Amino acid sequence: MNIEQIYTGCLAQGAYYIESEGEAAIIDPLRESTPYIKKAEKEGAKIKYVFETHFHADFVSGHVDLAEKSGATIVYGPNANPSYEFHKADDGEEFTLGKVKIKALHTPGHTLESTTYLLIDEKGEEHAIFSGDTLFIGDVGRPDLAQKGDLTQDDLAGMLYDSLRNKIMTLPDSVIVYPAHGAGSACGKNMSKETHDLLGNQKKTNYALRADMTKEEFIKEVTDGLLPPPQYFAQNVAMNKAGAVGLDKVLEKGNVPLDVETFEAMANHEGALVLDTRHQRDFIKGHIPNSIFIGIDGNFAPWVGALIPDLQQPIIFLADKGREEEVVTRLSRVGYDNTLGYLQGGMEAWNSAEKDIQDMESINAAEFADRYQKGNIHVMDVRKPGEYEAEHVEDAESIPLDFISEQMDRVDPDKTYHIHCAGGYRSVIAASILKSRGFHKLVDVAGGYKDIKGTEIPTTNFVCPTTQK
Asked: Read out DSSP for 398-433?
């Protein structure tokens, strides 16, 4: 028996490869099917099943394409009704894979169809669970994504409590927990950086698995402090229910070099959004007017999903040479399939054609501290509300990047804003969005709050009521 966790850091997502006696199963695959097929071929195995724990909201799964290419059967749990051919597992149904078995445990709560898959090893012992978004390391799935009709998040949280107590916590402490996500995912509130653990440890350390916790206490704690889900979540669920086209077709359309004139025409006359995926320092030095910065080396796909509301938005992009296919692939993972190409030759080609460029003022923390001490500057903190509430620069205004479009009316075009985040990535994203909307009195604070803390600028953990959401 072989179990391999295939973890994708930028999405904080874990897919799984399980193989026994030449038969393989994939659990919660990403959009691209080729790596799983090549993995099975390398191991001399045939992919027999593609198990989905639920309809994912934070990424687009490649299960349909993978099944078509490998001949595997797609398996969902009870209550799932996608528009393609699949096997709906009964609660407790077992699937044979070589010398091991995989048992479906219906665990509704995160969603109605959520299912945990229990791996029973060659000795007949309960070895591991693939818990999807039902149970994370240090947390549980948020219960507010599948509300419909009269079904509330409290109703779903109650279902999740029962699922955890009746289906998962009754398993042996030695069972390994393999979740679908780790720290950084928006599918939970307080996930650990660890990507697997023993169930016994989780019973001791996971707040949601306390033995003495009542259902009412569970509902209150699990629902407390939930921020609104990113806008692309519902659209990704719809794509996963309908079955997304294969990545091959997305790359054929999007991984296309565009000369300067074509690129400019698409931006100016065809409504294409210009996405700059280079490092923030390169964007600061010089960028195409009205382009949006979201760097490929940060949490690229989740920020694209959070900040570009329409999955059908035509996108053209700049990328470091050799990373063009990576950009298209990572956009497709969160459902942005309408990428039309990239600027061939990048900013060098744009400059050679003598096209307009813009830059951005950026200062280090020491210069920021000097300006702050002289007084009368406006500080914009674009970190998440929890980061701001924990500690922030005194008198700083909180406008979280997640909600910057909704809070644009709070920005005064006549004021000069010094913008910071935690480390310098999100602040440039925020500044690029503001610039594209006509705000130009912006100063980026490189190094963010991490470097600001090394100065003598006064800070506070006072929670400003106007920032609550």
From this structure: E--GGGTTTTGGG--TTS-EEEE-SSSSHHHHHHHH
Main-chain dihedrals φ then ψ at residue 23, nearest 5 degrees = -115, 135
Take residue 467 and report the two structure tokens written for it: 């920032």
Among 169, 199, 234, the domain boundary falls at 234
The answer as to whether 242 is a domain residue is no
At 184, the pLDDT band (50, 70, 90 cuts) reads confident
Q: Concatenate the DSSP letters of all residues of 102-133 into one string.
A: EEEEE-TTSSTT-EEEEEE-TTS-EEEEEEET
The H or E element that residue 219 is part of is helix 215-223
Is 352 within a domain? no
Range(s) of the domain holding residue 6: 2-234
How far from chain centre, in Å, is Cα 115?
21
CB 105 within 8 A of CB 116: yes
The per-residue pLDDT for range 87-102, each reduced to its tens digit, is: 999 999 999 999 999 9
Q: Are 180 and 28 in contact (CB under 8 A)?
A: yes
